[in-house]
Amino acid sequence: MPYKAFLDTLSSPRSSVYKRVFRTQSDQETGGAVLWGQTMSMALQSLLLTFEVVLRNRVHVSLSRQATESSGAVSNSFAWYDHQLGIYRLEGATRDKVEALLCDNNMVRLKEQPSPDRVIAQLSFGVWPNILDQQLPTPVAEARTFLDVFPHYPKNPRKHWYHPENRTAAIGMLKEVKGWRNRIAHCKPVWTQGWYRASPTQHWTEVLDRLKARRAEMLTVLGWMCPQTLEIYRRSYSGRLFDELVTEYAVLAHLIQPHVPEAGPAYARDHHGAMRAYKERG
Question: Superkingdom of this entry's organism (predicted)?
């Protein structure tokens, strides 16, 4: 297999990181290490996307309801982010990102405003930790919002989110997830930047331990938001794929034989009646 050409396409600086971390001794082994990393990124991507969507929707619903409760017509989707409505006054880069969606290229307000759901869907991950960290108007609003966003914290959530230090700790966890999400989105290795230089062992098995710990923390926070979504993810293909990949033998298998013909996911192909019925759905 043309592993050298594959590695050359990726560039030497990128592939050499895998060679150093996984202590590979041939182009085939280095190619296998890269493919392991890419597959691990794929397994984590669905979790990161799910986490981001759940977080933004929970923040959006909470702030929408808080903005409309006094009106008598409580809404789960309201333009709470629009400073012209005088409810919340977002500041800094977060406000700029919102205004860019509400205005044309000359920063003139669009005559037809996008729906709240559309605005929320176009805001980046970093907006949400920033709102929870700096944009809520009062400590009371902070405690209420955190309770709405993380209602399933296991030990007395109302009391827990009342304390500022607990909210600060949660924001730190969200920022960690954001950093990991951005790292994977930019095709960087799944481990933390700077880990190798700071590690006392500089051994690839530490990568697995760190991945398991970081993912476990993310799953914990996802469970605080929606335990049902956590359960679905754990049983999904991506969830099970991660569990298989984050093992020493999975790494070794990728190094020994990166390309295995006809290996991978297999799906039943004998459900002909079910397939016909599915295709005929209106």
Answer: Bacteria
